[in-house]
Specification:
Distance between the termini: 6 Å
Structural class: alpha/beta
Largest sheet: 8 strands, parallel
Number of domains: 1
Radius of gyration: 16 Å
Order of helices and strands: EHEHEHEHEEHEHEHH
CATH superfamily: Aldolase class I
Bound molecules: D-xylitol-5-phosphate, zinc ion
Number of helices: 8
CATH class: Alpha Beta
CATH topology: TIM Barrel
CATH architecture: Alpha-Beta Barrel
Number of strands: 8
Helix content: 25-40%
Shape: globular
């Protein structure tokens, strides 16, 4: 059974209270919170201030996906805001190992996200130090894009490596996850499914979350 992490980027920001209540009463495991700086990605979303509100609104895991440059400047602010997992992009970190050390020293779980063009093998020398790999299955920046099929091969390759090394690293898939493709993603080896539009544009979000959760 995968963990389900609805992406609040697709929520109704005039109705966040109701959307949080819906998630809290649903089978969702995590809140996936997308931070964008308008530099690393061509979009701007929200920062620590809003995450502090989400932290107060839920006891579920706050999974913060930083699509920003220089994440070391803000790691502490996100920890104070209540992030449980802090994920930085491989492509934004010249000294990735240092970034990971910083995140862990602040008491958070550490994740690394890869853009669609970045091979999973580039993480082989840091896998033992991290808790989660977020494979982007769309180009980061926007919700509602189509899943890139090659991601399935990346999941399989990464899963094999994690198992061979006996590591405890979760694989999270972010972008374009639907009720139609979720099974193939889980079968390939994904542990966590992020879903924005699939959940929040659904007629019955709670039911959709449950359907994603029951995929096996
Ligand atoms: C994209 C974000 C995703 C996005 C997913 O850059 O990282 O988390 O919100 O949205 P959907 O599921 O609609 O592709
Ligand atoms: Zn994300």
């Amino acid at each position: 059974m995968p963990l389900i992490a609805p992406s609040l980027l697709s929520a109704n920001f005039l109705n966040l209270d109701a959307d949080c209540k819906m998630l809290n009463e649903s089978a969702a495991d995590w809140y996936h919170l997308d931070v964008m700086d308008g530099r690393f990605v061509p979009n701007i979303s929200f920062g620590p201030m809003l995450i502090e509100f989400f932290r107060k609104a839920t006891t579920k895991v706050c999974d913060v996906h930083l699509m920003i440059e220089e994440p070391e400047k803000y790691a502490e602010a996100f920890q104070k805001a209540g992030a449980d997992i802090l994920t930085v992009h491989y492509e934004a970190c010249t000294h990735l190992h240092r970034n990971i050390q910083q995140i862990k020293a602040l008491g958070m779980k550490a994740g690394v996200a890869l853009n669609p063009h970045t091979p999973v093998s580039l993480l082989y020398d840091i896998l033992q130090d991290i808790d989660l790999v977020c494979l982007m299955s769309v180009n980061p920046g926007f919700g509602g894009q189509a899943f890139i099929p090659h991601t399935l091969q990346k999941i399989q390759e990464l899963k094999l490596r994690i198992q061979e090394k006996g590591l405890n690293v979760m694989i999270e898939i972010d972008g374009g996850v639907t009720l139609q493709n979720a099974k193939s993603i889980v079968d390939a080896g994904a542990d966590v499914l992020v879903a924005g539009n699939t959940v929040f544009k659904s007629q019955h979000p709670t039911e959709t979350i449950l359907q994603l959760k029951n995929i096996q």
